[in-house]
Structures are given as C-alpha cells and as structure tokens.
Design brief:
heterodimer; A: mainly alpha; about 65% helix; about 0% strand; globular; B: mainly alpha; about 70% helix
Chain lengths: ~325, ~290
Amino acid sequence: MSTTTTRGVAQPAPAKASPARPRRGLRGNPTFNFWLFTGPFLIGLVIFVFVPIGWSIWLSFFDARYTVTPSHFIGFDNYKQILTNSNFPDSLLTFSVFAAFIVPTTWALSLGLALLVHRLRFMRAFFRSVFFLPTAVSYVAAALIWKMSIFSGVRFGLMNTVLGWFGVENIAYLANPSPPWYWVVIVSLRLWIQSGFYMILFLAALQNIPGELYEAAAIDGAKPGWQTFRYITLPQLRATSTAVILLLLIAAYQAFDEFFNIIGQNATWAQTPLMELYKTALGTSQDYGAGSAGAVILSLLICLVTLIQGKFMGFGRGEEAK
Amino acid sequence: MTTTAPQLGKQHKKGRGVLGNAGLYVAVGIAALLFLIPFYLIVRNSLSTDLEITGEHWKVLPSFQWGNVSELFNDPTVEFGRSLWNSLVVAVLTTLGTLLMCSLAGYGLARIPYKHADKVFYAVLATLMVPTAVTFVPSFVLVSSLGWVDTYRGLIIPGLFSGFTCFLFRQYFLGFPKELEEAARVDGLGYWGAYWRIVVPNSLNFFAAIATITFISAWNSFLWPLVMGQDPSSWTVQIALSSFMTNQTVNFHLIFMAAAISILPLVFVFLFLQRWLVQGIAQTGIKG
C-alpha cells in the first residue's frame, strides 16, 4: 500500500521496478494473498474441526440428554458417569491390551514382509503388489469375508473346512466370548489389511539406507544376516519404526469398522471405545454429554500414549532430518 | 561424477546360494498365497449359487453365475446401484475438494510471507493432535444442527478440511524449487497466477498421489457415513454392505457380489495408479 504514496511527487522514479519485486496492489500484497489461499481452508477448519472439539468439551460439562443446547451445568458428573456407570472403562482396558498386542505384531509382520520383498531380485513388483493390495479393501468388505466365509462357525467356512481335514470339530468363532476365538478373527483381519501399507513405508526406508554402511560393516567383520540387521538395518529404520508404531497405536484405539460389523453392537464383549461412544451418544439414550466426556477421555488417552511412545522412541528425532 | 556413490551403494547385496534364494521365494510365495486367499474367496463366492457356498463339500471353483450381477442390481429390496452412485459422488467430490482446499492452504503456509503465518500453521498442527474418529459425536451434532443429515453436503464437506493433508502439501511446497516461481513473478504473475500456471502443473505427481490416497479413504470410510446415513437413500456402498450383513434374510451370493463390486474400483486404482500410490505413501506415510 505504501508504494502508492509516491504518486504525484516529482521523482526520478525508476521506469521499471526492480524485476523480482512483487507487483503493486492486491495481486502482490502478501497479506491479502495469504488469506486468499488459506482463508477458505481455515474457515472450514474452524467450523468443522475447532467448533466440534470446543463444543464437545463444553457439552461434556452439561446435562445434555436428547439436546445439544443444554442449560444445566453439572461439572464432572458426565465424566463420573461414563467412567463408573458404563462399559467404557472396560473397553478402554480391553483395547489397551489389544493395542499392546496388535501394534508389535503388525510392526513385525510388515517389517518382515518388507525385508523379504527387498531381498527379491525377480518379481519384486509382483509380490509387493500382492501384499499391498489388501489396503484397497474396506474393513466392511473384509469383515464380510472373514465373518461369512473364512471364520463362519459352520462346516462350510474355510477355517472349519481345513480344520475338519485334521479331524477338528467345528469352532463357533463368533458365537460367544469364551473361549475368545473372535480375537483370532479380528487380529488376522487387521494384520491382512494393514501390513501391506506399513510394508511400503519400510520398503521406502530400506531403499534409503546407504549401501556403504553394509560395506563398512562387512570390512569390520560383521556377518551378513542377524548382525547387520541388528546393528545397521534396525537402527537405520528407527524414524520409520517410530512413525509406524505411532500410526498403529492411534489406529488400534480408533478401531470401529470391523468390530461393528463382525461382533455387532448388541454383543456385550469386544465393544471398542468408539462403539461405546457411538451407542452412548447416538443410540437410544442420546446422551451427548456423557458421549462427549468419553470422547475427551479417549482423546487424552491417545495423546498420552503417543507422548509416552515418543518419550521411549525419540519422537520427532530424525523425522525432519531428511 | 557424483552419481557414482549411490550406484555403488545399490550393489551391496552379495550373491546368495541357489538354496538361500529358493528358500526366500518359498517363504514369499507362501505369504503371498495367504494374502490372496480372501480375494479368491470373494470372487468364488460372488459367482456361486447359495448352495455352492454353504454346501458341505468345498468347491474350489464356482459355477460362474454371472447372472448374480444383474440379480443384485435388480433386487428391489436393496438400493445397491444408488449406494454405489453415492459412494462415487462422495469420493470424487471429497477428493477434488480436499485437493483444492488443502493445496491452496499448504501453498499459502509454505510460500507467502505473512507475519502471523507461523501462528496459523501451529493452529493447523494442533488439529493433528486430536484423533479424527473421536470428534464424530460433536461433528454429528454440528452437522445435524445445520440440517445436513442424509445429504451429500453432510457426507462431503466436513471431510474436506484435513489438517494433515494441508500439512503434507506445505511440506511438499517447501521443497518445491523456488526459482520457477520467481521466474514467473518476474514475468508479471501474481501469487495466484504463479500457483495455477507454474506450481500446479509442475506438481501433478504429488497431487495424483494425494488424490489416490484421499479417494481410497473416502471410498472406504465407514463411521462417518454410518452416522450421517439415517435414510437408506443416502447410504454409501460401505453402509449398504454392512446392512446386508445384519439383514435377516441372507443371500450369500448377493452379499459377496456386492462386496466384490465395492472392491473393484479400488483394485483398479491400485493396479493402474500404483506408482503414484506407493510414492505418495512413501512420501507421506499415512492414509488420507
């Protein structure tokens, strides 16, 4: 704007402004352009992300049954209610155990697949595609295959057919929680869908490890195999491993789709935290207050787990170093 | 000269014995077979009769009932064609909208000098801390109070403002060669013109990668369409599939045909756009 003030003043104004300078007026004005570019996104972000988060925190302190504009402030009663009078804490506990199991398992499987595929000399692209393809399948479609074909509790299910060859009786995988066969169903599904995606991350990281490191190790007498894996490959994959474990942790606590479709929301077992929130807030009780309190608790838990993981694995270290 | 170092690096793999190689391929082959079983099952079941699916004796190959396709689409009790159309509209518009919103914002944050830009950037970063799935309760409250339940608006618009995608675009644009833009500015283009005429056409690979990832996650998303879809006419294909599963009458061949058709577009995306997809995931490290 200040550039226009020279108007009318007799000045040996340079006929041509220095070429790299931004043009006059709105077109060259950084502030205007900044808001032109980011404004639409920021407005949406405020309306559809910040407002819901704020609203959720606000609702969690009010008696908000069947209403989203409550007037009765009840302090921490919603938190008390969802932590004592519901299945929510049980599901938090169950899914912490689930996370503690599924995260390292998926990490190991995807890393294993990446190491195998990385060593291939022929048909590498083919095998990579095979392991990666399940990422295309939705949890809903996979739940259908798992529930109605592989782990169908009757004779025609694939698993029971195969077990039948060995004289094993039919197993009703999903009928009841004891013994908890349903974990086999859920865990195998999750491993199948997720591993290929994280394998891609590991493959990319493996390709970035400089070969000189292995050469140097060989000169120092390290045997190829376990030793180079332990002292070179694994440390070099640290940043990727951190990211993978972080993503897996968040995904484990946010489990919903396959549990909803395989276990169902009428069962009393294997209800994920999100399913409990779904039932509390959008089910028959329509308790937005308690549902919001649960959402706040779950968010805090995920942040806490993330921070703890970061503490152990050095979150952020090496991430930006590329 | 300088390119020799990485080439040398690629040759670190030592020759292995024939046995070691065979063992490697056997291991990979077995794993691949296990990973392909679900695909085999879905194709087999979708082209079978119900009796073949539930029969005592395992039939390896189906009797290829191609009529199952038309039976599914002509079934008046399920609006499968409708739900496919809904999914297509939602996934395409979500992808286009996300690309537009997030790339513009990412460019603004990366390139336009504005004294409060870092504060805005921290506000965007802060949204990454809150797990997205957890905000579905308040988001539902908001969208329903706008009267958007059962509408495309409700399904699409709340999903366009991904802090993470914006972040990815910002990181990408930070690495974009500045000289190209400066040349354009010298030639008299403003930020807007430089963005559309120089930056976007030179970033199509990255846009394609983000588009593929966004499309896949929009097509496969379940929780939000479930919350939104009160009326069957607004169901996406995932919700329709889910409702088949809990229906009383089980038509196995139709359910599996529906699932197969729901997977088909993404399998195509995977097979044809894999280069961008793999590159995008390797760059970004996350879905949607």
